[in-house]
Amino acid sequence: MTNTALEKRSKISTQIDLDKDGVQHGHLIIPHSRNDSPWGSLLMPLSVFKNGEGPTVLLTGGNHGDEYEGPIALIKLIQSLEIDKVKGRVIILPALNYPAVKAGTRLSPLDGGNMNRSFPGDADGTITQMIADFVQRFILTRVDAVVDIHAGGKIMSFLPTAVIHNLPDPDHMERTLAAARAFGAPNCLVLEELDAAGMLDTAVEEMGKIFISTELGGGGSNRPETVRIAETGIHDVLVHLGILDEAPKGPGKTRFLGTPAEAFVIADKTGLFEFTAELGERVEKGHIVARIYDLDNPTAAPAEYRAPCDGIVIHRHLMGQINRGDCLAVMGQETDNFS
Asked: Residue 322 belongs to what domain range?
């Protein structure tokens, strides 16, 4: 794929030929006219490893710019992956929302775009929409599977987990479950999204392809454990797909969790936030998981938030203050339907 080949189809160009054998490191060249560079561009990293026929996988990090396990794990993979061990093709975008990753923010500072609510994108839209359009039309159409590494960012904290969705087609679901088992995170959440429109997940799943995501920790940083889960999971999915002929590195044991209809606990107050349960803790319905205090009325009793069901605390709001309407906790329930 060359600049010339893309000129009529996207404002984004690249010198990388996605269909050529070998190792290629380069960029998506995204036009970005601004005060200090009228004919400027953003150079968004892209690497492709292709060795003959075989499956194709897209690996992405930085879908949100304050989630770091993905970019770190994928930069390490770019530096270590040996082409002669690859059978098929590995496409790597370590910073899917490149402007957001550069700024360390969840959303793009250039247009406020949430990459994971921007698919299928718009070739004539904002920078976020242009990136989504390019990925949708020129990359997703080539792949068999996508692994998109997320974490909690600055605001949320998660029990380290892989994430998949409950898919209506049994074959599609079984292929996705098999890949999730191969990823081997300590937990795998079969998530019912509050709003799936515009997500990369949805774009891939609507094509009938395998999609694995994660939520690895949070706090706007990373930990050795969560980076290791990302690295090992990516490697073992490549083994599972037949792209790498190696032994898996992970433990191969995953606890599957579902989200009941009442799983999301939403704050209806604004104030100082006290979380009273630990991530991973088993709690019974009615157990107090959080309190919100009114700083301007310190004699008032705090608002108490209770577990809506028996289950495991898999997510919590991380910051010490919370706003009305924010999600303060999510509950998961172990399931044997996907074991």
From this structure: 260-334
